[in-house]
Amino acid sequence: MMCPRLVAANRTPLAGAYASNPTQGTVVAQRDRRPGSGVTTMQTWELIAREQIRDTLARYNWSGDAGRLDELAATFSADGVLEVRGRDSLRGRPAIAAFLGGVAGGLAAAAGDPGIKPVVRHNLTNVLFTALTPARAQVCSYFTVVTHVGLDHFGRYRDILVPGGQTWLIKHRKVTTDWAAETSALARP
């Protein structure tokens, strides 16, 4: 799964104000409602799906940063896959929680000095929806991680999400670390 470069002709406009058309269940970008503009619409389900997906991505990072690994694992589907570049893929919530628990467990040891409070903060940016249907979404994003060492590491998530109850769940997440500090508390060589 790749994150393609943006091609203006293929993108649904998301900037600007939107006007709702409840009879058609669509949302129309105000700037594209000019006569002869070839109005581009987005259905209401898509707006809701996008926000639910952003919420899932945020819950993954907030739960992980707080050490709530069961809540983090709950952002995956029951048979979800976590693929970290250079490691064997993990399938299922228990395996994912166990692996990430081992990574987080090393954080306190990496701090070394008992006077240093181990802290981890994942920051997610540039969430790009490369495909979205009512049954499946492909999303690419960048992450930056700050720990007690400062900038610890950064990279990319490439996700496939599926609907699950009242939310969207990660079916497959590929994690690629693009850079890590020599003293990284979390990223492993």
UniProtKB/TrEMBL annotation:
SUPFAM superfamilies registered for this protein in UniProt: NTF2-like
Entry-linked CDD domains: NTF2_like (cd00531)
Taxonomic classification: Bacteria, Bacillati, Actinomycetota, Actinomycetes, Mycobacteriales
Coiled coil stretches, renumbered: none
Pfam families hit by this protein: SnoaL_4
Domain SnoaL-like, chain residue ranges per copy: 46-174
Name assigned to this protein: SnoaL-like domain-containing protein
